[in-house]
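Q: Study each token:
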Amino acid sequence: MHKLIQALSKTLTSQNIKLVTVESCTGGLVGKTITDVAGSSDWYESGFITYSNQAKQKLVGVGSKLLVTHGAVSEPVAKAMASGASKIFPASVALSITGIAGPGGGCDEKPVGLVYLSVCIGERSKTIKCLFNGGRDKIRISAMREGLSLLIHFLES
């Protein structure tokens, strides 16, 4: 994991960009992993843990209509989470993660392990859908790793 954070640090520093995270199913795991590395304060701006729908609305401006229409675990909500954080910190890139870590909460349409990741900077964004296997911890760790990888690839493209 340390190599992934080092690569992210190098990319953000070289582009003079700071990072903001918006986490739901990972509950702050991304922010914790980043801040475990000395020097991350040079490029890590802030982190939001928006576990509830109310937090998504109040902290990063996700619209209630989006939440009702698509549900918290959806591509539009992941994108709105990242976009909202990017508006709060306009000089930063935002990474959002929303999903179902389990063991409960899944259904046929949205099974346990379903995660949406979104990255946004200004008007540019990318959102992906992932389906991870395993228990709660494994799903959360997989979501964190995939989110950090998505972020690096997004910034390097």
About this structure: The chain has a mean pLDDT of 96.
